[in-house]
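Posting this for the archive.
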Amino acid sequence: MTLAISKGYIVTVNIVLCLDPNPEHLWWKNLMIESKKFMKTMLAISLLLNIIVLIPVCVGLATHADGIQVSFGEATPARGILLSVYLSILAASASLLVFRDPKLTAALLLMQIIYKLTTPITVGTFQNPVAISNLGIAAFHSVTLFITWRSVGNPLK
């Protein structure tokens, strides 16, 4: 059975699971194997997204690159603290990409979703480029968490 992200797939899986959730049946095992492979792929893509976005952002913040002031404001201690937070997310993402722990990855992504969704509120505008990109990344990480939840149940247990 192939996996696809679509409303029809979710409905189909729900119907199938209700009809015969016996873990001994071959189709059930295949579905669970494919679902977990897809979950692992999505977790890896979310971690790669963090790395791809954070490397240039951290370099820009650390070197006071042109254009950083427009998005992040003037160099202040608060911006230095933000760089520390970004570096820790970058290090955690790189580590989790190597050591592959779905529970730890889910916790990291959930924390990011919360702070990214609150960014437009704390910044006071939806027009800031960082707030806009944060909303897009939060949406992607939310899909990854939903797929993880569908594959293994609550990943934070």
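Residues 1-19 have pLDDT under 50 and may be disordered. The two ends are 28 Å apart (CA to CA).
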